[in-house]
Amino acid sequence: MNEGEKVLFLFFLRVGKALYCLKMSKMYTYLLLEGGKRHTMAANREFFYRRLHSLLGVIPVGLFLIQHLVVNHFATRGPEAFNNAAHFMESLPFRVVLELFIIFIPLYFHAIYGVYIAFTSKNNVSSYGYFRNWMFYLQRISGIITLIFVTWHVWETRIQYALGNVEVNYDLMAGILDNPFMLWFYIIGVVSTTFHFANGLWSFCVSWGITMNPQSQRIATYVTMLIFVALTIVGLRAIFAFVS
């Protein structure tokens, strides 16, 4: 190979390398852009699911919890008052459809996604203080306990009723709570449920931009803890009414 051929060969070799590097650069840029788009889409999905999870925890699940506690509280007025309240709820039109789409589907979406959050989220000490991080930890624990409690309660009441094995009335609940283990299981379950709902209200207010500054968040803490105490009293009074 003479000197001219060598120069020509080196020229084409360098051009080839330059074209190859340009191609790889474009491919790398494309992959970065595609990765960024996918990351943005995943982040948007995560944001939407968390907002939906927060909303369903208040409406309709939270409202159903309050309604359920109020109906159970009729037990403090005696078996007849409770049975009349329970019968009224049973006689609602389109009850099965209402229970499925207004209660159980939102409830179990909130519960299952909540379990995912419980096992993937970490405490945020940079944005929130010691107390609020403990409340976040208790929120995760109470969510797991509430899921177990609600699932068991639905199994031995609604599902057994649907199977034709029991009637949902005062005697059913009195029989269940006659067992000391089940009595404590219901006490822990009710306290866990009311705490999870009340503390979840605080998170809901933050997530939806209702409480944006430290002062409003502090006020929300006091309000939600009062709600927790009030609902817990209602729930525990109903439990002990069945026992007595």
Can you describe this structure?
- The structure is a single chain.
- The chain has eight helices and no strands.
- It has helices at residues 3-58, 61-73, 79-90, 95-120, 130-162, 170-177, 180-207, 214-243.
- It is globular.
- The chain has two domains: 1-58; 60-243, 3 helical TM bundles of succinate and fumarate reductases (Up-down Bundle).
- By secondary structure, the chain is mostly helical.
Distance between the termini: 108 Å
Helical percentage: over 70%
Strand percentage: under 5%
Mean pLDDT: 84
Helix count, DSSP H or I runs of 4 or more residues: 8
Task: Give a quick precis of the structure.
By secondary structure, the chain is mainly α. It is built from 8 helices and no strands.
Element layout with pairings:
Layout: H1 3-58, H2 61-73, H3 79-90, H4 95-120, H5 130-162, H6 170-177, H7 180-207, H8 214-243
List keywords for this structure.
244 residues; mainly alpha; 3 helical TM bundles of succinate and fumarate reductases; 2 domains; 84% helix; 0% strand; globular
